[in-house]
Description:
Blueprint: H1 2-22, E1 25-28, H2 34-43, H3 54-62, E2 66-74, E3 77-89, E4 93-98, E5 108-109, H4 112-128, E6 133-136, E7 148-149, E8 153-159, H5 164-169, H6 173-184, E9 188-192, H7 198-209, H8 216-226, E10 230-237, E11 240-250, E12 253-261, H9 265-268, H10 270-284, E13 289-296, H11 300-307, E14 312-314, E15 318-321, H12 338-346, H13 349-360
Parallel strand pairs: 4-6, 12-13
Antiparallel strand pairs: 1-2, 2-3, 3-4, 3-5, 6-15, 7-15, 8-13, 8-14, 9-10, 10-11, 11-12
Amino acid sequence: MHEAHHTGDSAADVIAAAQRSSAITVRALLPQDHGRWDAFVHSCPDATFFHRAGWHTIMEQGFGHDGHFLYAEQNGRILGVLPLVHMRGLLCGKALVSLPFCVYGGIAAVDLQARRALDARAQHLARELAVGHLEYRQRDGVIAEGWQGKPLYATFRKTLLADDERNLLAIPRKQRAVLRKAIAAGLHSAVDYDLEHFFPLYAASVHRLGTPVFARRHFALLRTVFGNDCDILTVYQDQQAQASVLSFYFRGEVLPYYGAGSLLARSSGANDFMYWELMRRAGARGVRQFDFGRSKAGTGAYDFKKNWGFAPQPLPYAYKLIGANALPDVNPLNPRYALFIRAWRRLPLPLANLLGPHLVRQLG
Length: 364
């Protein structure tokens, strides 16, 4: 009798252990998990370049923000990831964001239960950290009940064809004429392996816009962390650099992310030529998707991308109020910031470059 009773207990223990082992658990990303995390990101249809584990390094080492990169797993297999960053600043307040300084983020998962587990952990963490709001920068999807939307941004994505001439003909006639003029003017491009040309162009460009600049080391860190999946293309007229763009590559897609042009770039067509050269070069390496990134409706960047024949796709960013009564409105279109933008433009460029990185880390 004793033996039969003992056998029954063992069977129950085995069943309980099996149930525990098959449960979905949520864990924090550790350095030894980066390979597994990125393998999942590369295979998950929901994932983007901004879900990569390297962003944990960028956020913590580059900006000094605490990263809370969560993954859900079952029986040792990752089923979903959620990169989160704890933002704290005078301008943006306290927020838990997926992912600041990035156009996309949110939960990337192949399983509904994993998605729910990650969301539950994120909401618990948001309350634990006493943030104002939790933010998912989704590229696709719907805004769930109890969350808020903010129809501020659209993204612009388009398929690249294998033939340069067909890609050129797919550009609207007026924009194509600008490109042909730039090509005839003798502009040429080269891939740069340092920041010598890119950073001065970028710093001067954002200063003219009245926007604080990222630190030079931010771009150096991006190059180090993402290696060959991050490059710089610069456009020259004779030997003078006129425009430059730092781009990311992910799963057959190119994302021109930080672009800049000199004062001469508009009249010479260097900005337009730069994006065409990026399309052409990316196509030659087998890239078949061009992601022009997000822009706000009513801005010059939004109109510029439409002029290239890209259709805007609204971004369904989702926000959950935690401790705040309303979402902060930290964007250059807010009239409250008009005075700041005008004053920033008047700062000497060296001073703007010195102060900018301390401000921009708060904006996200």
